[in-house]
Amino acid sequence: MKYFLLFIALMGMVRAAETTPSTPAYPLSICVVSGDKLGQMGAPTVVNYQGTEVRFCCKDCVKDFNKDPDKYLKRLHDAEQKK
Questions:
Q1: Are 33 and 65 in contact (CB under 8 A)?
Q2: For residue 56, what is the enclosing H or E element?
């Protein structure tokens, strides 16, 4: 009986995952700060800034982003609107 209940619970979790909307694809293939192609310097650095995923080519670009995030978020949002 407990295996049946476990099975039912797992099936509910699978169905919930199937109906959850997926996160939109990241709109850029370049770093929002430097303009360099993501992945050229290793795995991109990913930061969640106030609910928005932002990808950088390196950690140094994160520092520059933090100096003026609105400037770079505008680039990101403009790219999202073009898609």
A1: yes
A2: strand 52-56
Residue 60 CA: distances (Å) to CA of 44, 67, 69, 83: 12, 11, 14, 28
In sign, the C-alpha dihedral spanning 29, 44, 34, 49 is positive
Domain spans of the chain?
A: 31-83
Q: Among candidates 31, 73, 25, 74, which has minimal Cα distance to 49?
A: 73
Could you tell me which residues come within 8 angstroms of residue 67 by beta carbon, excluding any fewer than 6 positions away? none
- Write down the pTM of the prediction: 0.68
Mean pLDDT throughout 33-38?
95
* Distance in angstroms (rounded) separating the CA atoms of residues 30 and 11: 39
Spatial distance between the Cα atoms of 72 and 27, rounded to a whole number of angstroms? 13
Task: Please state, rounded to an integer, the average pLDDT across all residues of the chain.
Answer: 82
